[in-house]
Task: inverse folding
């Protein structure tokens, strides 16, 4: 057998046995993405859902009940009834509800009189983003109800209040569908980099790297033997993530699976390359883990455009995002999942991913020397 | 010295296994350049075992890594069988095998899988493997364990598996970096048998580094390293021959051995004086005759000649090199404080279990006040666990423990205030200066005001640390770190001192220096409990126990233990012989019980 192939076979087989025996790499490849996806998928949402909203009705009436029912039906609110305004205010101060609506004494009379009734909305403004959302939801519900009432009464839309036109709201699109694909990219950045960085740091820690280096194995072979098994493992994690996205979170996957596999492969190679690069600096697992989180996960989270819009960042930061491989992958994933195979988006980003993969693997090869210096 | 002068001029002679030519390597530590090796030139012959001998920090591992092509040379060159390492590292790596200090094993892989991996890496043809594996497994006695995970092997078995893996493709030059450190004496002996077999049978050349001076005598030739410099090279017999007529055993009726040693060490003309059994081993200057030794105040001194050891020559060379006489000139005249001879440490039926694993199994011993008591055993014998229980750091599963009269179960904090503890790795703050460390430990022991100033000054003077007071402790030589650690442990004048492997890796001069201080402390009535895996350090102890697998195999003085293992084949056994015979007898007894 060819010597090179024999050495590679030995190294890859060793790596696979280690993966099977030591659960930590399996945990990184499968458990970590699953936990992060569940955590972020359920925890991070830009939508307001089941918001605790207080209702204070001074004088029960048909109109008031009908208006309150609007909120009881809504998936966005969990209404709580309060007997008086001070009681609702106390509940808001205690954090039991995020806001409340006060239908004052002459509400029903004003509605029947065809006047524009005054309703009071109190919102807890500590979480400004949430407050803005509640305000808009209430505006929407109010507008819908008034229109409905007017139609029943045969009156033209009185437009009782001013609807802010600059916030477009569409209850059919949930932010989760948009976040999950980006999240996959962020998680895969961490997984890929951690896998290689940690396993090589482990070899340094246990002194086995020293023993490997004295054999006639070349540095190429050591690196390739790390990339092959962990590429497969990382792609396994990717498959699990996509399955969770589609079947658990119900995110549509409209684009081509072939392109998805191609983009994921390129991205996984870039991530593994980053991990290899980290391992040339970090010779123990703790440091390797820390560096991996700081240099891959955080930039991917903040600078990939997954949550924070890149075009609204200051110019120097925008420039910085170009070396974050996750940026291109986020764009590809969001397109493939939500819009389909849009070539004008896919092609330039695939190309960028290719450059990233070559760059990181190349840098890792250049910096990894068969030496303890 | 003659042995060094006999060395051939270094060249790239292919007749030589290894040629070192002005080998120099420096490391950058923080902002300073620290030399690891300075102009080392030597050559070794093929088909021999060459010992690379020196204490920690002498540059042994650096030299091994340079030869293996893992580090780049700053100056000079190295050639292996005529091939320059810097020019063709892969070619050299094809000729050598190297076992690093931690054996380079994959602990998640079984014995067989480790062998397969290294066979693949070294390109051993599949057809040759079965025969070769059989031979290696037979030689190392690993046959019954092929499916066991390497991580589950004992230290001695790991060492043998590591060796088997490096031998999977028989190299021309075998590099073994401290293969015997921390493994039990029996495994050490087995390793030496394998090495001898390889050299005699297969004509392999071996370079083996060790900090154990007694191993030098098993090598065909030795290179003696100290602080990055070659201070001697040649046959071990040349080294000992140079000492002919200079080694003696000294006895004086009516003078305790420790006092005799202290006085003799301070006598002019004495190169080395250390306790061996009931006598003091004395090494004299080349120009001093035994009749001229007249130490003051010692009556009836008797000197009897004894055969020189390798260590005698090493000390001789070090003294010449450093010109540092033991600064015992100001006679630390043993204070004759009559310590009450009650028990300072009482251990009865002490047991510690971690889950199903019994780390310490029903041990009992008593240490008298003012005695030096040794716990001897290989790594994993249960010494450190016993220690941690005695310090109140680890609760005992069962049994009784009293230190200085206080039960550690009920009054651990009080007992801890009476004891000083020097941990194995000298747990000091490396970023702080010597003075800052002393201040911190003084404060940690609750010393205040003038007492604190007094104790810190005492530490600086007593341990000769004044010149280093503002030096960063990380950068101190190992011997000074050890002194500082001892100073910190003694800050609150404890009655009981615990020393966990205090001399591990320290050079022989610093070891002697250290033991001189410990002896003085014991004479002042401090009770000292020490763990060690250096068999010869047992000689310093008044009494000792030998531990293996959590149990005590024997208790007694070093003399008693050695006498017990005396046979006609071995009329004057060493401490190591005694240890080995005890272990062998014990395992024979246990297998007899289970059979």
Result:
């Amino acid at each position: 057998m060819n010597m090179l192939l024999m050495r590679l076979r030995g190294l890859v087989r060793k790596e696979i046995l280690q993966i099977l025996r030591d659960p930590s790499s399996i945990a990184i490849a499968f458990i970590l993405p699953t936990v992060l996806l569940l955590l972020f998928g359920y925890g991070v949402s830009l939508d307001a859902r089941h918001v605790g909203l207080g209702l204070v009705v001074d004088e029960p009436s048909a109109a008031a009940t009908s208006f309150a029912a609007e909120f009881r039906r809504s998936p966005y609110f969990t209404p709580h009834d309060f007997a008086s305004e001070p009681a609702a205010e106390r509940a808001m101060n205690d954090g039991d509800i995020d806001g409340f609506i006060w239908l004052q004494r002459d509400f029903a009379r004003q509605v029947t009189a065809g006047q524009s009734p005054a309703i009071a909305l109190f919102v807890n403004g500590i979480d400004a983003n949430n407050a803005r959302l509640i305000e808009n939801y209430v505006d929407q519900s109010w507008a819908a109800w008034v229109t409905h009432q007017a139609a029943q009464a045969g009156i033209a839309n009185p437009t009782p209040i001013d609807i802010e036109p600059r916030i477009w709201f569409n209850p059919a699109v949930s932010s989760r569908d948009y976040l999950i694909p980006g999240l996959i990219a962020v998680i895969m950045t961490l997984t890929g980099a951690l896998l290689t960085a940690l396993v090589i740091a482990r070899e340094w820690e246990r002194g086995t790297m020293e023993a490997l280096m004295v054999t006639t194995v070349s540095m190429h072979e050591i690196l390739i033997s790390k990339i092959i098994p962990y590429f497969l493992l990382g792609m396994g994690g990717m498959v699990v993530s996509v399955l969770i996205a589609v079947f658990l979170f119900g995110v549509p996957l409209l684009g081509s699976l072939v392109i998805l596999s191609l983009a994921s492969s390129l991205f996984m190679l870039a991530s593994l390359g980053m991990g290899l690069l980290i391992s040339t600096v970090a010779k123990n697992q703790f440091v390797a883990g820390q560096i991996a989180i700081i240099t891959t996960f955080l930039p991917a989270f903040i600078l990939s455009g997954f949550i924070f819009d890149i075009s609204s960042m200051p110019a120097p930061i925008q420039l910085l995002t170009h070396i974050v491989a996750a940026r291109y992958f986020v764009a590809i994933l969001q397109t493939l999942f939500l819009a389909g195979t849009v070539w004008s988006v896919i092609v330039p980003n695939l190309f960028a991913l290719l450059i990233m993969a070559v760059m990181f693997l190349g840098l890792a090869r250049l910096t990894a020397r068969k030496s303890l210096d | 010295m003659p042995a060094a002068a006999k060395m051939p001029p270094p060249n790239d002679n292919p007749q030589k296994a290894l040629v070192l030519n002005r080998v120099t390597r420096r490391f950058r530590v923080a902002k300073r350049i620290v030399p690891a090796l300075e102009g080392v030139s030597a050559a070794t012959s093929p088909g021999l075992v060459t010992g690379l001998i020196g204490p920690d920090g002498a540059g042994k591992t650096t030299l091994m890594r340079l030869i293996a092509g893992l580090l780049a040379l700053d100056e000079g060159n190295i050639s292996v069988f005529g091939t320059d390492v810097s020019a063709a590292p892969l070619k050299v790596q094809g000729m050598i095998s190297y076992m690093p200090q931690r054996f380079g094993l994959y602990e998640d892989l079984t014995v067989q899988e480790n062998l397969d991996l290294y066979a693949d890496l070294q390109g051993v043809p599949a057809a040759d493997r079965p025969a070769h594996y059989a031979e290696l497994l037979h030689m190392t006695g690993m046959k019954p364990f092929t499916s066991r995970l390497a991580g589950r092997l004992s230290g001695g078995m790991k060492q043998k598996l590591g060796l088997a893996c490096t031998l999977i493709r028989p190299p021309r030059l075998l590099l073994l970096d401290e293969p015997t450190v921390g493994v039990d004496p029996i495994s050490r002996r087995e390793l030496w048998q394998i090495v001898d077999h390889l050299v005699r049978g297969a004509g392999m050349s071996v370079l083996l580094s060790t900090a154990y001076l007694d191993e030098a005598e098993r090598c065909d030739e030795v290179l003696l390293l100290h602080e990055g410099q070659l201070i001697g090279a040649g046959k071990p017999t040349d080294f000992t021959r140079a000492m002919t007529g200079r080694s003696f055993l000294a006895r004086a009726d009516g003078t305790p051995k420790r006092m005799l040693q202290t006085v003799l060490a301070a006598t002019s003309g004495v190169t080395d004086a250390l306790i061996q059994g009931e006598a003091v081993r004395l090494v004299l200057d080349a120009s001093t005759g035994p009749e001229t030794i007249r130490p003051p105040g010692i009556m009836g001194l008797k000197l009897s000649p004894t055969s020189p050891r390798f260590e005698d020559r090493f000390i001789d060379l070090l003294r010449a090199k450093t010109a540092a006489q033991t600064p015992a000139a100001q006679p630390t005249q043993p204070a004759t404080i009559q310590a009450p001879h009650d028990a300072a440490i009482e251990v009865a039926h002490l047991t510690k279990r971690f889950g199903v694993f019994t780390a310490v199994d029903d041990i009992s011993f008593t240490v008298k006040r003012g005695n030096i008591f040794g716990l001897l055993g290989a790594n994993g014998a249960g010494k450190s666990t016993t220690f941690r229980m005695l310090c109140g750091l680890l609760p005992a599963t069962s049994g009784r423990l009293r230190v200085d009269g206080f039960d550690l179960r009920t009054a651990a904090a009080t007992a801890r205030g009476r004891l000083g503890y020097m941990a194995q790795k000298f747990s000091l703050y490396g970023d702080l200066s010597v003075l800052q460390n002393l201040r911190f430990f003084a404060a940690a022991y609750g010393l205040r005001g003038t007492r604190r100033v007094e104790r810190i000054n005492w530490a600086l003077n007593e341990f000769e640390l004044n010149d280093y007071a503002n030096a960063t402790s990380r950068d101190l030589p190992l011997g000074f770190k050890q002194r500082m650690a001892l100073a910190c442990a003694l800050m609150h004048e404890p009655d009981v001192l615990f020393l966990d492997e205090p001399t591990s890796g320290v050079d022989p001069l610093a070891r002697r220096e250290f033991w001189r201080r410990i002896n003085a402390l014991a004479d002042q009535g401090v009770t000292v409990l020490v763990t060690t895996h250096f068999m010869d350090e047992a000689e310093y102890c008044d009494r000792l126990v030998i531990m293996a697998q959590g149990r005590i195999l024997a208790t007694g003085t070093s003399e008693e233990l050695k006498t017990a293992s005396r046979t006609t084949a071995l009329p004057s056994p060493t401490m190591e012989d005694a240890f080995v015979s005890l272990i062998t007898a014990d395992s024979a007894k246990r297998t007899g019980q289970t059979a």
